[in-house]
């Protein structure tokens, strides 16, 4: 394993959601500071247009697409389903990630001559879902065990988590000198809802038995943890209280957690620059409204002996049969517990190396483009996110260009678990103080969106004030 | 210049929002059909000849019953298309035997019955017999009504069993359940 070349790892576990490769490093957009609190700051102050400053949607599957299954192509649905079940691996997954910024803002601080520090803050709501393909469960449901004697069905194939949270954050960014900038961002998470089932273990297997044809061996250790769900689905709740409850949780009234982001930017020389960040190093402690379900135990079933109960005299076959039934119930009827639990946020890593070129003084207007004066940049970005089964990675090559004053564009080519031909495009435009940005990837897939393995979209409006321009 | 800016914005916006789709039909999901076959061990017996002695004298009929709430489970009732029970007996006692299985509903009404038997083994070598009971049509309906099974083991006439009788009776059985799951 350790000797497998990096690139092979990249291909084999390559897989992503939440990658905002277009926004990362796009310093004209204030929200890029959320990806790297130590990024470059180009404005003096800004505020996001409430609810519109950052809208992000990303969905993807590393396996079968919607089109593969539901295309109106005359092929029998069950044939397509069969192909999907047999072609996907347990590491294939489905993800969905969505973020909406409720409010945000930022401003420079420091002495009047050199305001080299920047404070930013905001509240955003995030939903994150990941479900792995439960391959062995699917095969068992598809074939049964008759044709799978001695096959070990892995109960751990069931792995999924879903969370809805809100995040209140305050970030601090300091430009130490012309070359080095760093930043940190503290976060308070408020969990609105959480379902987590990521540490499942065990197996089911049918083997040839001794007393009877088969021994059916169950070894199960499964658990689903939930918080914020039970009270919403309880019988005596109505929609009014649910909405009230959710609002309260959005504004720090849910299960709370803490976390932070760190990041830096370092200018190697006039043209080369590196930066990096870690996001969401943090946890949420779930204690309110917790309900967990677990199925745990070992049991070997070899059938029943109807006439000669094993455990000797006095016991009728019915007692004996009831014992067996109890064993099954003990194993399969889920235990409900109310123990609090902790979930860790998926840690994200971003890093990039950038080369700026094409120095140009504007002839169209007499304004400054940037201190560097470079119109273009190319670079490589690495993104990694910690996921229940294994980290997922993406590698992006990009080209960035200032088209006009107040209009920048970035094009990306990304290799990740979904595809090898993910092309993205994003722009940021300033119309007076209003900043608008729009970015989307997987452009090649837009010819048939149902066949897309992943789609990602970000857009937003900000009001930006920059002293040096205009 | 401003116009060009708007043009680019409009272009990107159109590309994103008016993306194409090819025809899909989500109603196909209603055609889903799963046909797994599950096999499970059922009953088993493995007893030496002297288990048929009570206080030194032979007992020829043994009977007991089990309550089962599996066959009348709603999932089974809805989706079980066919079942096959395989009974395999191995007899090394010099006496034949017969097993009768009676399947009763909640009100102890007989729904279905079947018997299988094994001949004696004079030289105490393995006499293996197999019986397959198939549940389809009426017998499948009977199976789905069954909540109680009565097993009666009868030792067929022959040489008297005593403490010194050698050999044993073995019964193994399994059921194959053919499901057809569709909405």
UniProtKB/TrEMBL annotation, chain A:
Pfam families: DUF5723 (PF18990). Residues 37-441 form the DUF5723 domain. InterPro entries: DUF5723. The lineage of its organism: Bacteria, Pseudomonadati, Bacteroidota, Flavobacteriia, Flavobacteriales. This is DUF5723 domain-containing protein.
């Amino acid at each position: 394993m350790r000797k497998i070349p990096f690139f092979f790892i990249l291909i084999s576990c390559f897989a992503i959601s939440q990658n905002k490769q277009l926004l990362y490093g796009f310093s004209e957009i204030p929200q890029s500071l959320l990806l790297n609190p130590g990024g470059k700051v180009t404005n003096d102050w800004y505020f996001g247009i409430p609810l519109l400053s950052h809208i992000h949607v990303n969905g993807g599957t590393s396996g079968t697409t919607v089109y593969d299954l539901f295309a109106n192509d005359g092929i029998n649905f069950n044939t397509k389903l069969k192909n999907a079940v047999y072609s996907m691996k347990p590491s294939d997954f489905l993800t969905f990630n969505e973020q909406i910024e409720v409010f945000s803002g930022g401003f420079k601080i420091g002495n009047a001559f050199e305001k080299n520090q920047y404070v930013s803050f905001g509240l955003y709501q995030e939903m994150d879902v990941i479900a792995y393909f439960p391959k062995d469960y699917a095969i068992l449901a598809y074939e049964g065990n008759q044709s799978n004697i001695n096959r070990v069905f892995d109960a751990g194939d069931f792995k999924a988590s879903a969370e809805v949270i809100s995040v209140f954050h305050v970030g601090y960014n300091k430009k130490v000198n012309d070359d080095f900038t760093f930043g940190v961002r503290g976060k308070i998470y408020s969990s609105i809802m959480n379902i987590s089932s990521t540490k499942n273990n065990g197996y089911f297997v049918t083997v040839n038995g001794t007393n009877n044809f088969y021994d059916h061996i169950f070894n199960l250790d499964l658990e689903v943890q939930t918080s914020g769900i039970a009270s919403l689905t309880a019988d005596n709740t109505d929609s009014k209280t649910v909405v009230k409850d959710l609002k309260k949780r959005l504004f720090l009234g849910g299960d709370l957690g803490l976390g932070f982001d760190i990041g830096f930017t370092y200018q190697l020389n006039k043209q080369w620059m590196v930066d990096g960040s870690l996001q969401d190093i943090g946890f949420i402690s779930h204690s309110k409204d917790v309900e967990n379900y677990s199925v745990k135990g070992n049991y070997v079933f070899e059938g029943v002996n109807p006439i000669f109960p094993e455990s000797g005299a006095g016991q009728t076959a019915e007692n004996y049969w009831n014992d067996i039934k109890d064993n099954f119930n003990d194993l399969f009827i889920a235990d409900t517990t109310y123990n609090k639990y902790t979930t860790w946020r998926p840690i994200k890593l971003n890093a990039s190396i950038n080369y700026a070129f094409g120095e140009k003084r504007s002839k169209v207007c007499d304004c400054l483009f940037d201190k560097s004066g470079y119109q273009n940049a190319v670079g490589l970005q690495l993104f990694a996110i910690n996921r229940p089964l294994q980290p997922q990675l993406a590698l992006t090559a990009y080209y960035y260009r200032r088209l006009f004053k107040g209009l920048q564009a970035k094009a990306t080519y990304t290799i990740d678990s979904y595809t090898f031909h993910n092309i993205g495009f994003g722009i940021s435009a300033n119309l007076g103080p209003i900043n608008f940005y729009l970015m989307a990837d997987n452009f090649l897939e837009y010819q048939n969106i149902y066949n897309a393995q992943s789609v990602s979209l970000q857009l937003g409006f900000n009001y930006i004030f920059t002293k040096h321009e205009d | 210049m401003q116009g060009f800016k708007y043009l680019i914005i409009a272009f990107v916006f159109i590309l994103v929002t008016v993306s194409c789709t090819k025809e899909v039909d989500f109603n196909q999901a209603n055609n889903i059909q799963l046909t797994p076959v599950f096999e499970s061990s059922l009953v088993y017996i493995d007893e030496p000849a002297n288990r048929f002695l009570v206080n030194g004298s032979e007992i020829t009929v043994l009977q007991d019953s089990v309550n089962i709430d599996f066959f009348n489970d709603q999932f089974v009732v809805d989706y079980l298309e066919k079942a096959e029970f395989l009974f395999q007996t191995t007899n090394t006692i010099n006496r034949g035997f017969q097993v009768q299985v009676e399947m009763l509903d909640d009100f102890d009404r007989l729904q279905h019955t079947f018997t299988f038997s094994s001949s004696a083994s004079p030289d105490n070598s393995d006499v293996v017999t197999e019986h397959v009971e198939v549940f389809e049509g009426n017998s499948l309906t009977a199976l789905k009504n069954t909540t109680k099974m009565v097993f009666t083991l009868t030792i067929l006439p022959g040489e008297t069993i005593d403490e010194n009788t050698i050999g044993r009776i073995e019964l193994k059985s399994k059921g194959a359940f053919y499901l057809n799951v569709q909405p």
